[in-house]
Amino acid sequence: KLYAPMRPGEGVRQGDFYVRTADRKDYWWERIILTPVFDAAGRHVLSIGITLDVTEQKSLEAKYMQQKRIFDSASSANLIAKGLYNLSRDCVDYYYGEADEAVQLDTSHDYTDGVEGAATTFANSEEADRFRARFDRLTLLQQFDRGTSEVNFTYQRVCEDGRVIWAQTFGKLYREPVSNDVMCFVYSYDIHEQKTAQDMISTVVRIDYDYLALLDCSTKDYVVYASQEESHTPLPSFHSSDYEHEVAEYAHAYVVPDDIERNIHDMSIANIQTQLKERDLYVAYVTIRENDSSTSHKKLQFSYLDRSNEKVLITRIDVTDVHRREQ
User: Fold this and answer.
1) DSSP string spanning 28-54?
2) What whole-number percentage of the chain has pLDDT above 90?
3) Which helix (H) or strand (E) holds 8?
């Protein structure tokens, strides 16, 4: 159809095509544009054609449309509000307040109104100023030109009923494929329960534990939760998809020589599973070389957080004082 004879007065034709090399190793998008030339009698005598590589444009279009679908379907009990803003034109394309805590906006407002409305809900005025600076329209446009396409801010928000909750607002920037304007998809979520739980874990870890860890025995994936304060005790990697490799590396780096092989065995997945077959709690001990070259004694505890899915909670406690008293 693209190359069919053109009728008198017909304008430019174009089409986008996904093409490949003969060996099918490389694929890309091409846009073919044909401009017709007619003689004095109006007959189509030839077409002038150009071909453009539009692979990057097609990729950006696909990413934009994917984010638009995510935005359109975004709805949850924790969603406070969502908005689609045109940063290039400083206007609101769409805004929806899901919860009572949402700022009341409509498309007659501009982007700056939205930022200011959100800032007025902050419990702390200094944090509100930092939020205004972080989400400033011109700043975001400049950052987008430099390749930054995400922005987020966690803060305490005052609700209409006087409650203070933790919230997070984040934005994702994309170029709209038709207008070429820079668009910002903004979401605000109530993260109060999540943030409170994280703070509780951090406090408990700081007071009672070197760390807590969650191990998935089926995938060997594990995550470590530890205090953010600087510790004199060496800590394992905070995340790994190869738990036993990390255990061995840590043992060879920080466990006293006489305990290395025993510690690797004690913490192996096979041994943990064996020990927890008939009991709810498995305990092991190890001696660690501290960062200051001294030694300390640690108590490791293992228990199923979710036995059916083989999720194991691991805790490590310092028992150096107890060990010395026993000696």
Assistant:
1) EEEEEEEEEEE-TTS-EEEEEEEEEE-
2) 35
3) none
